[in-house]
Amino acid sequence: MVLTMSKSSDFHSGFVVLIGRPNVGKSTLLNKAAGRKVAIVSNKPQTTRNQIRAVINDDDTQLILIDTPGFHRPKDGLSMRLNQTVRSSLGQADAVLFMLDVAAGIGDGDVYIANELKKTKTPVFAALNKIDLLKKDEINAEKDKFERLCNFKSVTSISGLTGSGVNELLKKLTNILPPGPKYYPDDMLHDQPEKLIIAEFIREKILERTHEEIPYSVAVVIEEVKKVKDILHIYGWIYVERDSQKGIIIGKNGGMLKEIGIKARAELENLLGENIYLSLRVKVKKHWRRDGRLLNELGY
Fold first, then answer.
1. Is there a common fold for 12-175 and 194-297?
2. Does the pLDDT of residue 214 top 80, yes or no?
């Protein structure tokens, strides 16, 4: 972490953890708040697997929003580790932002998370997301139900997609930040290591093009990134759990893998501002989600 001391004694800074069940829109909000894409987005559960920090600067504040994996009842070694990531994030936060899908209503996962949050002394804010999908009277009716879930410091209705209510929410969060230093320089929007963010953008393209069990069985690891003349060469592995999944990712005559590479390269060139050569290969690692050693090797 880069620590940059502020010139002003009135500077405030701190960390707010985003928590919520899968697919409530945490990453969409993170991108909207950051003003650019820093986290991958899809409609598949377990899209976010790592802790992602977005840095939001103002003249006298620095708010660090921490996106976390969807909190859920664990089913395997990977999901247990994702939950551990969420719990460890709670311990370093100045506040918690509980994201809820107001259009879907209260689900078992929301109740599960609310019960977990009742154990923490950290102030909990609520963001009722996806208000763009409801009428105003429907939002008000649902808001009353959600407010009873937990002892919230405040409840804000937002749309991470359109940006409605997001500035109001960010103002509430910055208002509770304690006096502190500037943790990151002004030009730093996130703290993702280069290889990790490259791997995540590639995995997003796989999520967009695959269905059923494939999205949950895929991991991407970047083996090497090196500059050759004016081109950034990226070499990566796509890991799956079964031979049949390998065939799906590669596709007929390599068509699926080629399409994934083309889409990922275009987005990475825009993100990194570099001309890119991207080489992807597919390998089977059986039951990697249940293998502690493999989870360590894959960075989870």
1. no
2. no
